[in-house]
Write a structure and sequence with these properties.
The complex is a heterodimer. Chain A is α/β, with parallel strands linked by helices. In chain A, 38% of the residues lie in helices and 13% in strands. Chain A is built from 15 helices and eleven strands. Chain A has an eleven-stranded mixed sheet, sandwiched between helices. In chain A, helix 2 packs antiparallel against helix 3 and helix 5 packs parallel to helix 6. The longest helix of chain A has 24 residues. Chain A starts with 5 loop residues before the first helix and ends in a 14-residue tail after the last helix. By secondary structure, chain B is mainly alpha-helical. Chain B has a domain of 34 residues. In chain B, 35% of the residues lie in helices and 4% in strands. The longest helix of chain B has 18 residues. Classes of the chains: A alpha/beta, B mainly alpha. Chains A and B meet through helix 9, helix 10, helix 11, helix 12 and helix 13 of A and helix 1 and helix 2 of B.
Chain lengths: 485, 95
């Protein structure tokens, strides 16, 4: 039962085949058994999860038929949860208990979903391997000597290993899509502003966006239905009606125009990932789609521009951690300056400090025009490339990552790690929706296909992803990990 | 652009971070590498390009100037490392 999609579980719950309490207990048992090895969860909420499950069963008995009612999920530990620790993967917030729920958390509670716990992540979402977490790295269930990707690595590993039915994540430069690719699951980043950022700990505010990690595109649609929408508490959330993203999942792909960016099939892409994506494209052609090459001439500048915009915004956002109002404070400060400096130096890990320094430098007197303003101009060029490409095609498809999951400890140089997100970062800079779905297995590891849509083209890319999953079974492939019971 | 240790110290001061003497070279080298990556964007002429502050070019939404938040002071101050009588405590600033 635990391997089923949320949509399938919903049916099992409504037919009475299983109760939410039973289902929740099954996931809790698996977490107890396997989390020690995977390190996917930072906090497990056994008692409250069972209470929520009981409440969900009662609601169902009283006629509530909400699609996610009673479905157990995990939240990335970046979302504030009332009464439950929210660490953001950092020593700085290791003891932080928010007095309120993030809007995303509130929306899932209102939909009746059951929160199993909070998942591990790169510290303040800064990383592509989940190795920067204060709580230690997460292991990839496909091969526990390898990384799950990051920063939403705990969520991705938990979904892949069936420690939950579905999970939330956030994506600033690829942090939902790349771990989804490495763990063989579906990961969806909606358009910037589609999901409220309220109560979601800020990294880079002009890029951050929350989204689902799930076992199918259909589940991603069900979750987005719950997550999306205007929130008056987030001034960047968009005032635009939310579609029912499940309504168009079964639309035919006959006549669909797929663009493949030549820059994403160039040097650096491994042969096995390229083969997987080419095979997937043939599958789409069988479904009536046409495939043409598109040009994203400024794509190679996206990582450079991102590593100005994201650290600059992070350096401003993370200035709030000063040891005064919440979180970590150093022992025995001699004066205020000493307290600020030691609190921040002891509370933040190396990668976070590095990005704060880069961002502070880029925003410091005399450098603003050369860095931040320049990066914003490059950002427009990148967006314009997509606008041009979308004149000719409906969706853009390529690999999510140049390769499959790499080994823990393999990438120690920050710049090498930054280049991990070479295919995903431009999508954040342009604010577009993107999804990664499993499209093959190479040497025993899953590989991800990246589907990018127009502004607010959520429904279209979910449709394109779902149709692929109706005709292939890559998303049904499971790691051997945890299969003995 | 290469950064030396004294520049790193200056930025660290702006960011209220302490970099130990033992780490200073390593930090300077790593940041120099990152700036080399960033500087790839300097090769493109962007004189005629309008900077993009928001991916959808949306302007800030305004709301009516009304009080909508309730008082959570006591609740929020329980999170503080040190608070007393409704105030946040920090090391003495003025003798």
């Amino acid at each position: 039962m635990i391997e089923k999609t949320a949509a399938e579980l919903s049916q099992a719950l409504s037919s009475g085949e299983i109760s939410s309490v039973e289902l929740t207990q099954s996931y809790l048992d698996r977490i107890n058994k396997y989390n020690e090895e995977l390190n996917a969860f930072i906090t497990v909420c056994e008692e409250s999860a069972l209470a929520q499950a009981k409440a969900a069963d009662e609601k169902r008995a009283n006629g509530d038929a909400s699609p996610l009612l009673g479905i157990p999920l995990a939240h990335k530990d970046i979302f504030c949860t009332n009464g439950v620790t929210t660490t953001c993967g950092s020593r700085m917030l290791h003891n932080f208990v928010a007095p309120y729920d993030a809007t995303v958390v509130e929306n899932f509670s209102a939909a009746g979903a059951v929160m199993l716990g909070k998942t591990n992540m790169d510290e303040f979402a800064m990383g592509s391997s989940n190795e920067t977490s204060f709580f230690g790295p997460v292991k990839n269930p496909w091969d526990t000597t390898r990384v799950p990707g990051g920063s939403s690595g705990g969520s991705a590993a938990a979904v892949a290993a069936d420690l939950c039915a579905m999970a939330t994540g956030t994506d600033t430069g690829g942090s939902i899509r790349q771990p989804a690719a490495f763990c063989g699951i579906t990961g969806f980043k909606p358009s910037y502003g589609r999901v409220s950022r309220w109560g979601m700990i800020a990294f880079a505010s002009s890029l951050d966006q929350a989204g689902p990690l799930s076992k199918s595109a259909e589940d991603a649609a069900l979750m987005t239905n719950v997550m999306a929408g205007l929130d008056k508490k987030d001034s960047t959330s968009i005032d635009k009606a939310v579609e029912d993203y499940t309504a168009t999942l079964n639309d035919s792909l006959d006549g669909l125009r797929i663009g493949i960016p030549k820059q994403h099939f160039a040097e650096g892409l491994t042969a096995e990932v390229e083969q997987g994506i080419r095979d997937a494209l043939s599958e789409y052609e069988k479904l009536g789609a046409t495939v043409t090459e598109v040009d994203l001439p400024n794509n190679h500048l996206s990582v450079s521009a991102y590593y100005v915009v994201a650290p600059a915004e992070a350096s401003a956002n993370l200035s709030r951690y000063d040891g005064v109002r919440y979180g970590y404070r150093c022992e025995n400060p001699v004066d205020l300056e000493d307290m600020y400096k030691r609190t921040r130096s002891e509370g933040f890990g190396d990668e976070v400090k590095r990005r704060i320094l880069v961002g502070t430098y880029a925003l410091s007197a005399g450098y603003y025009d050369a860095y931040y303003r320049k990066a914003q101009k490059i950002r427009r060029l990148i967006k314009n490339d997509f606008v041009e490409a979308f004149r000719e095609v409906d969706v853009i498809i390529g690999p999510t990552s140049p390769h499959t999951a790499f080994e823990l400890g393999a990438k120690t140089d920050p710049v090498t790690m930054y280049l991990e997100d070479i295919y995903t970062i431009a999508v954040n800079l342009a604010g577009l929706p993107g999804i990664s779905i499993p499209a093959g297995i190479a040497n025993g590891l899953p590989l991800g296909m990246h589907i990018v849509g127009k502004d607010f083209g959520e429904a279209k890319i979910l449709n394109v992803a779902h149709q692929f999953q109706q005709h292939t079974d890559w998303h049904k492939q499971k790691p051997n990990f945890g299969q003995e019971d | 652009m290469a950064l030396d240790k004294s520049e790193v110290e200056k930025i660290a001061q702006l960011a209220r971070l302490h970099i130990s003497v033992a780490d200073a070279d390593e930090v300077a080298n790593r940041i120099t590498d990152i700036l080399a990556l960033i500087d790839q964007m300097q090769s493109v002429d962007t004189d005629a390009v309008e900077p993009m502050a928001h991916p959808l070019d949306v302007v800030q939404r305004l709301r009516a100037d009304e009080v909508t938040e309730t008082d959570h002071r006591d609740e929020l101050q329980t999170l503080a490392p040190e608070a007393q009588d409704g105030l946040y405590l920090v090391p003495k600033v003025i003798e």
